[in-house]
Design a protein that fits this description.
The chain contains seven helices and eight strands. The chain is of the alpha/beta class. The protein has a single domain, classed as NAD(P)-binding Rossmann-like Domain (Rossmann fold, 3-Layer(aba) Sandwich), CATH 3.40.50.720. Strand 7 and strand 8 form a beta hairpin. Helix 1 crosses helix 7, helix 4 packs parallel to helix 6 and helix 5 runs parallel beside helix 6. It binds NADP nicotinamide-adenine-dinucleotide phosphate.
């Protein structure tokens, strides 16, 4: 049976991803902190190494070769992965749905939707070697269809589609013992969320870390916020 718990977090050099990594390291995980910018990633990993086991791996979720290289590096270091946190995302909307350049929507999809899909497709065999593999897609409340309005169309649509990726992966990976869920961290004070957001990064990361560690393994294919299932 696998003993050491391993987790990989994308976009972990700052914001919620860094705090998720910190909390997982504190709980005894060997955290593979990944980032597209090596300088920022190495600096963040060096900080975490004071609190627990952290290793930096370069990973740009939009680049298939980068994802493959990162997977090779991970597989050389560990024989299984317990937790994959697809956290990396961009929010670059500057127009409404009536005038947004479809190329901007495509760019956002590349990171926020196809990035997590690409990383999950590459890493699931290593997750299948865990006794309780978990994929957590960090989504957003603004991706929920039931009350969607006009806010940030490219970002919102990319997160709705990410939720569909979650459902597809959950169904496909159930027989492999891998749980797959979407999580909303709430509105959090980060570069993306801005300084006026009500939640700290600690509060934003808490529900994600719960899903990664304490949630029942039978919980899969759901959209979660603050430990509760929320409507799509
Ligand atoms: P953030 O501070 O802007 O951090 C985003 C992270 O994603 C950064 O590390 C960034 O790296 C990375 N990233 C972007 N593109 C990437 C790529 N192609 N490959 C690898 N990494 C990439 O945002 P955050 O607020 O922490 O957001 C984290 C997650 O929470 C995201 O999925 C976001 O959608 C979600 N979320 C946030 C809020 C909020 O209020 N903050 C609300 C709902 C959901 P660089 O430093 O290189 O740019």
């Amino acid at each position: 049976m696998p003993s050491e718990k391993n987790a990989l977090v994308t976009g972990a050099n700052k914001g919620i991803g860094l705090e998720i990594s910190r909390q997982l390291a504190e709980k005894g995980f060997h955290v593979f902190l990944t980032a597209r910018k090596p300088d920022a990633g190495l600096k963040a990993a060096a900080k975490l190494q004071k609190q627990g086991k952290a290793t930096f791996i370069e990973l740009d979720v939009t680049e298939p070769d980068s994802v493959k290289r990162a997977a090779r590096e991970l597989a050389a270091a560990v024989d299984h992965l317990d937790v994959l946190i697809n956290n990396a995302a961009i929010l670059e909307d500057d127009g409404g749905v009536l005038d947004i350049d479809p190329k901007e929507v495509q760019k956002t999809f590349e990171t926020n939707t196809l990035g997590p899909l690409r990383v999950a497709q590459t890493l699931w065999p290593l997750l299948a070697k865990s006794d309780s593999g978990r994929i957590i897609n960090v989504s957003s409340g603004v991706g929920a269809l039931h009350d969607m309005e006009s806010y940030a169309p490219a970002y919102s649509i990319s997160k709705t589609a990410l939720n569909a990726v979650t459902r597809q992966l959950a169904a496909a990976l159930k027989s492999k013992g891998i749980a797959v869920n979407s999580v909303s961290p709430g509105w959090v004070r980060t570069d993306m969320g801005g300084s006026g957001a009500p939640r700290s990064v600690e509060q934003g990361a808490e529900g994600v870390v719960w899903l990664a560690t304490e949630a029942p393994p039978s919980l899969t294919g759901q959209f979660i916020q603050d430990r509760h299932v929320i409507p799509w």
